[in-house]
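Internal tracking record. Fields below are filled automatically when a chain is submitted to the structure queue. Please do not edit lines marked as system-generated. If the sequence contains nonstandard residues, flag them in the REMARKS field before resubmitting.
Queue: standard
Priority: normal
Entity type: single polypeptide chain
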Amino acid sequence: MEDFLLEGKLNPKIEPTRAGFLKIFAAWLLEEDLPFTTGESPGIKWLFQYLQVKYQLPSDTTVRNQLAHIFSTLHETVVEELSVSLDSGLHMKIQT
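SYSTEM-GENERATED OUTPUT FOLLOWS
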C-alpha cells in the first residue's frame, strides 16, 4: 500500500480541462515561435478532428489572452518571491 501511495504522489493523475488545454496550447505556440493563428489553420483542425479532441481550438485572441494571463501569474510569483527574499535579508541585517 505504501508503494501505491508513493506512486500517486510521484505521478499524480492529470485531469484534462479546457483551461489546462489552453495554457499548454498557448505555451507550445510561444515555445515553438508559432503564429497565434495556428489554432485557426485547417490542417490542425483536421488533426484534432481525427484525434477526436473534445476541446475547440483557440483563436489568436484567446491565445494572446492566455499568454497575458500566464505572464501576469508568473510576474506576481516573481514579485512575491523577491519581496519575501528582500524582507528576510533586511530582517537578517537588522539582527546583526
